[in-house]
Write a structure and sequence with these properties.
binds (2S)-sulfonatepropionyl-CoA; 261 residues; six-stranded mixed β-sheet; four-stranded mixed β-sheet; 2-enoyl-CoA Hydratase, Chain A, domain 1
Amino acid sequence: MTDALVRIDIDDRIGCITLDHPARRNALSEALVHQLIAGLADLKERGARVAILRAAPGAKVWSAGHDVTELPRDGRDPLGWDDPLRYLIREIENFPAPVIAQVEGGVWGGACETVMACDLIVAAPGATFAATPAKLGVPYNVSGMLTFLNAADIRIVKEMLFTAQPIPAERAERLGIINYLVPAAEIEAYTRAIAATIAANAPLSIAVMKEQLRILAGAHPMSPQGFERVQGLRRLVYESEDYLEGLRAFLGKRKPEFQGR
Ligand code: YXS
């Protein structure tokens, strides 16, 4: 029996999923992602009109991102269609009601994209957002890049991806990356109040507008040749020595030494 890595609850049509695997800093392992997705399905079944996605109160780390120990080292694409993280992003985008990310603590890597894929973001001072593929030598995937591009100006996306440095919530709010910056002591009540406002509105109208916006936000023409070029370039990265060095360094708790090959 797998331990519960997330907690699910619903109250007055407002669902809440709490990441609850502090020992691994809520890393998005296959097991945790599957419980998270099952939680979304459960909330949909129970008629949730909003889903709040959060970590435990006062968490120093909202989520450490993709579980690095699960990234493949046998030449397979680490972020292919069936990767748990990709599955999670699609489930959030396809959930038929707004998903609000309530953020305290650090948000890293694939968890940063997960938060950006949510419909609204409420964060507390001290929260940070870091996109980390370049830190590990990972070739991010096309739809993942689009999630970031739909969340921030391309210049900010480039800064986040090229530096892999965290952006503090205060700056993220100024940049319009998050909706609200709320003191930690108030963030739960504040997020629930937003959720209650949404839950009192017409759910079908909201569900359809969310799906329309998903389709419009994803409507980027890319030629088959363009897609094949992107996939070929990504393969150069995930078959590179640098990718393996990034994983080895993380697992060995040391700084990577990238050689550009
Ligand atoms: O040493 P033990 O066994 O206690 O385990 C440690 C960490 O190894 C583990 N852990 C993780 N395990 C797998 N995947 C992770 N992403 C991960 N992060 C942490 O959790 C235990 C406690 O970690 P520790 O001691 O470092 O905690 P801390 O409080 O000192 O520091 C918290 C963090 C989050 C600052 C630190 O754990 C950290 O920097 N984690 C990695 C953040 C990161 O770079 N994530 C990106 C993962 S790769 C990914 O998301 C995508 C593929 S991509 O890179 O493309 O975006």
